[in-house]
């Protein structure tokens, strides 16, 4: 059984989730189906990923109770705004074939567009109406979080951000902890980088007789973050979920965190735009 964090609204959030950015030719229904069979109960998608249909098909076909699965999706930049956000949710619900979104996030803040507060207000109302169970954000900085709190009085329960040993986000994680926000990590294994081959990770893997990927995912867990690794391989899916039978030492966690060098893709939320 995967441990859970408790969100500020009382919802249990599994400590590891499955990312669903689609690879070329991938059968997302099969990918998510095998993940559910392996024990995943947190599935992360987004309207922009164009994987909501496969995720919904897998959830509906699974023998796992719908009540035990937490499906996350995200509002893209093109749907920022009060009314636009409601339309985005209608599209996502239709794609997913579900009656409620468990966790809805704003995908990027897009401060130049300056509609993320209106989008957030819409999400607050959709939560009250029962279309959405929990509401959060993705790629928000402390300043963005402060603004929506000041203007609406409601903080997100989750902020999903780029987080891996190259970019541990210590200051943002501390802000989250202070304000009762759970940190989720996208690209937790440093997608496409040489990260898993580096000495602090390889040494810890050898010491604990686990894979380098398991070491990094365990590092996230010990930081209090929820990693969302992406894999369509059933064996790798199971391995990525199997991180609760060992514990990194404080020295190992510090050594891995010392690999910090910054964002991999230079996607600064103050300037990056994605629609």
From TrEMBL:
| Claim: Cytoplasm is one of the keywords in the record | no
Which InterPro entries does the annotation name?
AKR, Aldo/ket_reductase_CS, NAD(P)_OxRdtase_dom_sf, NADP_OxRdtase_dom
The UniProt GO MF terms for this protein read:
oxidoreductase activity, acting on the CH-OH group of donors, NAD or NADP as acceptor
> Which residues lie in coiled coils?
none
- The site feature described as Lowers pKa of active site Tyr is recorded at 74
Question: Where on this chain does substrate bind?
Answer: 107
Residue limits of the NADP-dependent oxidoreductase domain? Answer: 18-259
Q: Which residues form the active site?
A: 49
Determine if DNA-binding is one of this entry's keywords.
no
Which keywords has UniProt assigned to this entry?
Answer: NADP, Oxidoreductase
Q: Which family does it belong to?
A: Belongs to the aldo/keto reductase family.
Instruction: Quote the protein name from its UniProt record.
Output: 2,5-diketo-D-gluconic acid reductase
According to the entry, what is the taxonomic lineage of the organism? Bacteria, Bacillati, Actinomycetota, Actinomycetes, Mycobacteriales
């Amino acid at each position: 059984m995967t441990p859970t964090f408790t969100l500020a609204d009382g919802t249990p959030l599994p400590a590891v989730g499955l990312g669903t950015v689609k690879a070329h030719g991938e059968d997302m229904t099969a990918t998510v189906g095998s993940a559910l069979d392996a024990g995943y109960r947190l599935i992360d998608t987004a309207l922009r990923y164009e994987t909501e249909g496969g995720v919904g098909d897998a959830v509906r076909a699974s023998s796992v109770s719908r009540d035990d699965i937490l499906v996350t999706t995200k509002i893209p930049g093109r749907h920022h705004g009060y009314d636009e956000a409601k339309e985005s949710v209608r599209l996502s619900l239709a794609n997913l074939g579900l009656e409620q979104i468990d966790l809805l996030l704003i995908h990027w803040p897009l401060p130049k567009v300056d509609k993320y507060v209106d989008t957030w207000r819409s999400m607050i109302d959709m939560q009250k109406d029962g279309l959405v169970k929990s509401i959060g954000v993705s790629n928000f900085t402390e300043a963005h979080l402060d603004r929506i709190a000041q203007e609406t009085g409601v903080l997100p329960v989750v902020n999903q951000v780029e987080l891996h040993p190259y970019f541990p986000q210590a200051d943002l994680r501390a802000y989250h902890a202070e304000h009762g926000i759970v940190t989720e990590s996208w690209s937790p294994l440093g997608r496409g980088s040489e990260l898993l081959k580096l000495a602090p990770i390889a040494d810890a893997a050898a010491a604990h007789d686990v894979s380098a990927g398991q070491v990094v995912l365990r590092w996230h867990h010990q930081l209090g973050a929820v990693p969302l690794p992406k894999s369509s391989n059933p064996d790798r899916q199971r391995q990525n979920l199997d991180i609760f039978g060992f514990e990194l030492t404080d020295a190992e966690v510090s050594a891995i965190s010392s690999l910090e060098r910054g964002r991999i893709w230079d996607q600064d939320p103050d300037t990056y735009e994605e629609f």
